Amino acid sequence: MNKRQEKSSTEDHYRSVAEKFDYFYQEYYEGHIPVFMKWLDLKPSNIVADIGSGTGFIAEQLYELSGLNNPVWCVDPSAEMQETAWQRTGLYPVQKTAEEFVSDPEISQVFDRIICASATHHFIDPDAVFKGIVRSLRPGGFFIQVNTVAVGHPMFKSAEKICSTCRKNVVKPTPRLLQEMNLQGKISHQEVTTSTMTVTKSKLYEMFRCRYYELV
Ligand SMILES: C[S@@+](CC[C@H](N)C(=O)[O-])C[C@H]1O[C@@H](n2cnc3c(N)ncnc32)[C@H](O)[C@@H]1O
Known about the structure:
Helix content: 40-55%
Order of helices and strands: HHHEHEHEHEHEHHH
Shape: globular
Mean pLDDT: 87
Pfam families: Methyltransf_11
Strand order of the largest sheet: 3-2-1-4-5
Number of helices: 10
InterPro entries: Methyltransf_11 (IPR013216), SAM-dependent_MTases_sf (IPR029063)
Bound molecules: S-adenosylmethionine
Protein name: Methyltransferase type 11 domain-containing protein
Domain Methyltransferase type: 50-144
Radius of gyration: 17 Å
Low-confidence stretches: none
Strand content: 5-15%
GO molecular function: S-adenosylmethionine-dependent methyltransferase activity
Largest sheet: 5 strands, parallel
């Protein structure tokens, strides 16, 4: 798949799952949000951006749980995902790709925290995006990239295998790649096991039928 085909298949995927996205990821959010809160260590005065923010569920939680004074910038190119984000509290949705967003000189040194959960693998130009993210951080600010590296269910293992053969040209920014990019500042990498996700069998089958996860 070339980059254009990849982009349009990503758009189609999120168009089809947008309506049920929060329901599909409810258990994932329950396990992950306490971890995000701990890592982000937010202060009410922080200016926060969520890149690849989807429906804005995470951003709304960060806003409410930390009592932020300013809305969280939610950057996502999908109109359907952003439609839900517009209905939430404490968000400032920006319908752009990460590439478009970071190329705007107006956002230089604006953010105290930037989070990107399960979206960096969609970046068309990860090198430009990561450098842009560094430019958009204020002194003392930091960026957190969150990726799921393993899901216990065997279904995901075979899906990962198939995907790595059919999407060879898609760059997954790994800690090693980030190190090689010569970004300013420190980079650290941590693997965390979140609490076990429990979903009923009927819900899991519904998730699979709806192809809730793009690799399935
Ligand atoms: C798996 S979802 C994650 C959504 C959200 N971070 C969450 O965890 O609920 C990935 C999101 O990345 C967005 N996305 C796709 N291509 C993107 C790009 N080039 N720049 C930024 N976001 C992108 C999709 O529209 C989708 O909403």
